[in-house]
Amino acid sequence: MSIDGLVTFVGLVVAxxxxxxxxxxxxxxxxxxxTVTLTILFxxxxxYLELFSVWAPECGWRAEVCRVLVLDGxxxxxxxxxxxxxxxxxxxxxxxxxxQRKALGARHLPRLLALATALVEEKRFSELNRVTQPxxxxxxxxxxxxxxxxxxxxQAATGLQRxxxxxxxxxxxxxMERPKxxxxxxxxxxxxxxxxxxxxxxxxxxxSDSPLFTEVYDNQNVFITGYVFPEHNTYLSFxxxxxxxxxxxxxxxxxxxxxxxxxxxxxxGAYQAYLNGAADRFQEEERWRDRTFVAxxxxxxMVDAAMRQGIEWHMWLYYTPHLxxxxxxxxxxxxxxxxxxxxxPTRNAYLLYAIFGALTDWVEAIAHLPADSxxxxxxxxxxxxxxxxxxxxxxxxxxxxxxxxxxxxAVSDRFKNYLADICFRCLDKLPRDGDLAGFRRxxxxxxxxxxxxxxKDHLPRLLEAFGDLDHVVRARLGDFGEALEQxxxxxxxxPGPPPxxxxxxxxx
Length: 508
Hints:
This protein is elongated. It is built from 27 helices and no strands. The protein has three domains: 3-100, no CATH class; 106-188; 208-488, no CATH class. The chain is mainly alpha-helical. The chain crosses the membrane at residues 6-23, 35-57, 77-99. Keywords: Membrane, Transmembrane, Transmembrane helix.
């Protein structure tokens, strides 16, 4: 390599460095110590070889040694220019190898914080994500004290955590645009993660064009052993493939609270009018962009995964009575007094059906749980809560939801009977005898008690719904009929109106 060639090569390197983005240049300089050291050593060696004929000393040693060290003469084994070219290639390879290393050490964190701060100030979130994402583990370990570091390095790690986990506009960006980074950050074991995860999930739940809606739509697989969560569904796979992550982060709260807030704001507005419109196409593609429906599906996926994986917690499936109450508060059926044969008279009615469908699915799943599942063990068959048992919790919530529907004046009798029929058919599938018979007794108790509050204002309407049930199914539910008769303190149950001269007593 001649002097001109060396100058040309250096010029190309400088040009490439100048063309790189500011973030990229600063990221390269995070490891400037190694790069600068290599450049100085190899640069000095190359310059020495280029000027070898000027300042190279004569070799006064043995002839064999001099043949290797002396590069000029009549027959050199390699010329100084060739040796310089080899050294330039070696320098380039070592620098590239150094830059390819993703891992940083604790000593790099102050420089990384300075770079991240500059990028945040300029709102260059894509570059910020690219620079910091490979080092999330290092930041967490230094910040928590798991790695030995100086005071300045710990302060830098804490500063980076605050910058990445509490900057709302950056959180919004990665929630919508960088799901893989979002789940990596949620996977970090640190107290700062919980508020971050809450903001991520709430942001996803509040925007119908978010990745969460796409993933829920894409995760419609149904298996007897539960749902499968493919890796391309980044959020759902992270939270539910191992549902302990959802439990650790309390994934139910931001999603369900966002849904309840959305319903609370709908009174008298466009969304209430939308809910009370006809459900003609809602059950097809339209529902997958509805915030309330996607929240119900999210809860279904989460609770089912936790139950199948033996997590002893109800995963706050008790949001279903709150959703039911909110939907009933918005319920208007323009055709309530007409003879309507639509399965779901309104979109609101379809959402209520989705809630009842999820609850009964969780109850009926006992037939497919492994024999050693903790969810097959009941403490009591009374209408009382058991927070560690998902099917029992679903039974209690179902009783509450059905009671609310039966006493709701806005709901037509036909649709009340429809939802009650879903509950009765679920009860019919539960065994009368054997180890699982306790679930049947629990469900009878919950339907009659109206959930954990044990009210009776719904019993006359429950009696009517039971009387309108298909006679074949009703015949198989004699135990329920007897319990209902005892609760009402009236005549032995028979379909139709009460006998002449008898009236139903006040259940209170």
